[in-house]
Amino acid sequence: MNLTPVYFQRHAIAILMTMLTFNICTSQTNQLPTSEDKITIDVENIEYKIFNILLTRKFLHGNVQLIVVRDSTRVDHVGDLKNELEQSRRKLTGLTQEVIDDFISKNQRRSNLKPQLDLDLRSILISDQELDEIFDNQDRDGWQLFYNRYPNSAGIITLSRVGLNRDKNLALVYLGNQYDRLAGEGFFILLSNNNGAWMVEKILSVWVS
């Protein structure tokens, strides 16, 4: 077989193309997920129980007749979550590293919520798409449109996944509540379970507008 320089050149190009294809596929496979992605792992039933306790405690008063909750979990208005939790640990007495690690792990991506909230108040889940429809139009007042559509509501509620310890008797959750353009607040909430009952131990404000 006569192996000419042209043969070697073509063979080298073929090898190079194969290596490039492999590297591209590998980099796509190993690409880290972003916080915008939603995952298919279900939110645990114990987390819904904690949501119910917190939402009932916070909003079962006054003229609030409807709870509007974002349909996927997140921690909003918090930049570096790990650093924020390290700072918060000093004020949330009883918070353990185990719970912090579980909270960070669960909240690396968003998870879809299901209509499993069991409240004394009516509740619905609202999508990002609907919120964009309401607030992205510059020719109208988004909050007025929101309250026309959802009267007597408490604004928009954001929930995180719940960080838990192994024994599932200590929990950390984020709850955000935006109720006007420059009016809202967000909290880290630490709970403990004693004799089967969840109790709020500490509430720490992490942002106010």
Describe the structure.
This protein has helices at about 5-30, 45-60, 80-90, 95-105, 130-135, 140-150, and strands spanning about 40, 65-70, 110, 120-125, 155-160, 165, 170-180, 185-195, 195-209. It is an alpha/beta fold. The chain has two domains: about 1-30; about 40-209, no CATH class. Strands 2, 4, 5, 6, 7, 8 and 9 form a seven-stranded mixed sheet that branches. A two-stranded parallel sheet has the order 1-3. Strand 8 and strand 9 (about 195-209) form a beta hairpin. The radius of gyration is 24 Å and the shape is globular.
Q: How confident overall, as mean pLDDT?
A: 82
Proportion of strand residues: 25-35%
Give the count of helical stretches: 6
Count of discrete structural domains: 2
Helix and strand content put the structural class at alpha/beta
Strand count, sense and barrel status of the largest sheet are: 7 strands, mixed
Q: What is the CA-based Rg, rounded?
A: 24 Å
N- to C-terminal distance: 78 Å
The 3D shape can be described as: globular
Estimate the helix proportion, in percent: 25-40%
The helix-strand sequence is HEHEHHEEHHEEEEE
Please give the structural blueprint.
Elements: H1 5-29, E1 38-39, H2 45-59, E2 66-70, H3 81-89, H4 97-106, E3 110-111, E4 122-126, H5 128-135, H6 142-149, E5 153-159, E6 163-164, E7 170-180, E8 183-194, E9 197-208
Parallel strand pairs: 1-3, 2-4, 2-5
Antiparallel strand pairs: 5-7, 6-7, 7-8, 8-9
